[in-house]
Amino acid sequence: MNYFITKQDDGSVNIVTPVPPKFDLFTGEYLLLEEIPELLEGKKYSLNDGELSVINKTTADLNLDDTKKLESDLKGIDQETNSTIESGFTFDNLVFSLSKNAQLNWGNLFILKQAGLYTDTEIATIDSNVFMLTTGNVNAFFAAYTDALNATLEIGRNLKQILKNN
User: In angstroms, rounded to a whole number, what is the distance separating the alpha carbons of residues 119 and 54?
Assistant: First the structure.
């Protein structure tokens, strides 16, 4: 396998495979190799005077790695939280959406109930079945919705806080 190795303006090394067409038009420092040395933990590549070597990472490199890992882990928590929200919440043994539009709808239904303007309404479950939301169960429905959403968000916040404190 061939590797196209370039040195970036910040001194970092970029390794591309397969070798891009017209690589010879690249204006910066570059190198072509059939094999590259193994990169161990705490090491990084260095390209100087047409030679690729493996050197120790600096403290700044290690701090940057930690920052990138934290950012990645936080994004992972956000993705998991969003996935849990997308799976909806359960009420009366049925699953209902927690999409942003659904959250607005559920809040509006509750406001109508509080204002004394609510009448029994058919609403859709997450799999498009019909459920009759009656004046007698709007409060319990709203509580189930807010409890599920708040619990999911709290788990995400707590996981992020644990990561940030470590």
Answer: 71
Instruction: Specify the amino acid at residue 130.
Output: V
Tokens matching residue 82: 């969003």
Separation between Cα atoms, residue 79 and residue 151, nearest integer Å: 16
Chain position carrying tokens 């939280």: 81
Residue 28 tokens read as 């910066």
Which of 97, 79, 80 has the alpha carbon at shortest distance from 88?
97
Dihedrals φ, ψ of 93, to 5°?
65, 20
The whole-angstrom separation of Cα 48 and Cα 137 is: 71
φ and ψ at residue 128, rounded to 5 degrees: 70, 20
42-81 in b/e form (b: 16+ CB < 10 A) is eebbebeeeebeeeeeeeeeeeeeeeeeeeeeeeebeeeb
Instruction: Return per-residue pLDDT of the chain as tens, 166 residues.
Output: 789 999 888 788 889 999 999 888 888 888 899 998 888 888 899 888 888 989 999 898 888 888 999 999 999 999 999 999 999 999 999 999 999 999 999 999 999 999 999 999 999 999 999 999 999 999 999 999 999 999 999 999 999 999 888 8
